[in-house]
Specification:
The chain is mainly α. It has 14 helices and no strands.
Length: about 290
């Protein structure tokens, strides 16, 4: 793992009564697995059902519209299978593939003319699979890349700090990217969401509210790069979940799957909470001993 030197004194003290460091480590492991499962099953379901919004991404690859409709269920089914396998029996090779696949699909969005903010916002699509891989470490031989990950490795405080820094970057990018939708892109579907949420009651144009929320999220993203307080990450979790729940409230197409697909954005701040707890539980060394399922 990559190391970063950060003084443990920067982390405010907090305790979670009755929770051991081993339990927190397994919670971190399972949160990441659950986030990957939600991402790939949600994304895969949109493909299996077929989603018209995917067609421009096929066009980027030179695939015709008719072929795109035929390929969508296949791509979606593969994503669903990967999500289920990771929930049941994660493996390093699959995690690396999912991180690269998530990065590739995110890059298709600006390539199709959706704007660079789309790639930045989807940091959790590739970041969460990479986080689980980073937690367990890269394989040292072919067998280790394909064997099931059944234990949580022992982590040093420095390695836990590295995990926290990676999580901070993932959270910062997803917030800054989403903020860019409102502050700079003026994304139309957000106006419908804010109208549904009743923001029009303030008497301000929805466009003004959209811009203000966008800059607020960008500010949150910048703050995430140096955040050390548990309450901050708890707020980010609530903010992201509340934001995405506007999909079903607004009656958006495939709304439930859209909410599920963004599971990584909810899991990222929750895993940051777990790492903070680990860092404060045993400042000198963090022992997340291996355990059985």
């Amino acid at each position: 793992m990559i190391s970063t030197d950060v003084s443990l004194s920067e982390f405010p003290s907090f305790r979670v009564r009755g929770i051991s460091t081993q339990t927190a480590a397994w919670t971190l492991h399972w949160l990441l697995r659950l986030g990957i499962f939600m991402e790939f099953v949600g994304h895969g379901a949109c493909g299996a059902i077929t989603k018209k919004g995917w067609l421009p991404y096929f066009h980027v690859l030179g695939i015709s519209e008719n072929m795109g409709w035929e390929l969508m269920p296949l791509v979606g089914s593969l994503d669903i299978a990967l999500g289920v396998i990771t929930l049941l029996s994660p493996r390093r090779a699959l995690l690396l593939y999912m991180a690269l696949w998530g990065c590739f699909t995110a890059l298709l969005r600006p390539a199709a003319g959706d704007g660079g903010w789309e790639f930045i916002e989807r940091s959790y699509n590739y970041g969460v699979p990479f986080m689980l891989l980073l937690l367990h470490g890269f394989g040292h031989d072919r067998k280790s890349w394909f064997e099931s990950l059944k234990t949580v490795p022992s982590l040093s405080a420095r390695q836990a700090q590295t995990l926290l820094w990676v999580l901070r970057v993932i959270i910062a990018l997803m917030l800054i990217g989403h903020g860019g939708f409102g502050a700079f892109m003026g994304k139309k579907n957000l106006l419908g969401f804010y109208q549904t949420a009743g923001f029009g009651v303030f008497g301000l144009p929805l466009e003004t509210i959209q811009t203000a929320i966008g800059f607020f999220e960008i500010g949150l993203g910048c703050a995430a790069l140096s955040a050390t307080w548990a309450v901050f990450f708890a707020f980010i979790f609530a903010w992201k979940l509340g934001s995405e729940l506007l999909y079903p409230l607004a009656g958006a197409p495939l709304a439930c799957w859209e909410v599920i697909e963004r599971g990584g954005s909810y899991v990222a701040p929750l895993t940051a909470l777990c790492v903070l707890f680990l860092l404060r539980s045993i400042p000198s060394k963090i022992d997340c001993y291996a355990g059985a399922y």
